[in-house]
Amino acid sequence: MTASADEFRQSMDDALRTLRELRANRHAEESVETRGEASAADGLITVVAAPGGRIESITVLPQALLEGGDYLAEQLTIAVNAALDDLRARTATDAPDVPDASVLLERLEGVQQQSVRQMQSFLSTLTTAQARIARSAG
User: Fold this and answer.
1) Which residues 6+ apart lie within 8 Å of 98 measured at CB?
2) How many angstroms separate the Cα of 66 from the Cα of each of 5, 38, 41, 43, 60?
3) pLDDT > 90 in the chain, percent
4) Do 47 and 55 touch, CB atoms closer than 8 A?
5) Sheet harboring 54-60: ordered strands across?
6) Which position has the higher pLDDT, 93 or 43?
7) Neighbours of 93 (CB within 10 A)
8) What is the predicted pLDDT for the residue at 105?
9) Looking at the chain, which terminus has fewer C-beta neighbours within 10 angstroms, N or C?
10) Which of the two residues, 103 and 131, has the higher pLDDT score?
11) What pLDDT, in 10s, does the model give residues 11-65?
12) Residue 116 parent element (H or E)
């Protein structure tokens, strides 16, 4: 195998390894059960947010109901928004390291360029061989 073929194989191996890492990390990220949680009304209201921006649970202690509807609505809004903010923060910090997309793109572009060079070399060799065969037959 020539040096350029070895370089090509190494570039392909690197790009494939990066893609496998990206896929494995994505599956690991999907299986993580990250939740966001927040309280309001001095702990009388608790909200748990699940991935996808879904509210998993809302707990309201009876004392919060004594404050009236407007207060309850305001505190629920505060708790829900804080739980969603907590979920976003946890998701960002809990996410596994994934390869940088720009690095992956750069590697794949290198593989593409090397593939084109090798294909040109291969075709040139075939054309030269074909011309020799035609000269010797003619």
Assistant:
1) 21, 22, 25, 26, 29
2) 77, 21, 12, 14, 11
3) 36
4) yes
5) 36-40, 45-50, 54-60
6) 43
7) 8
8) 76
9) C
10) 131
11) 777 777 777 777 676 655 554 578 999 999 999 999 999 988 899 999 999 999 9
12) helix 101-137
Tokens of 14: 């690197």
pLDDT-derived band at 121, boundaries 50, 70, 90: confident
Q: Quick one: tokens of 6?
A: 């070895």
Extract the tokens encoding 44: 């009388």
Cα-based angle 75, 93, 26 (whole degrees, multiple of 5):
115
Structure tokens at 30: 């999907």
Helix (H) or strand (E) holding 50: strand 45-50
| Token code pair at residue 63 | 């004392």
The amino acid sitting at 81 is: N
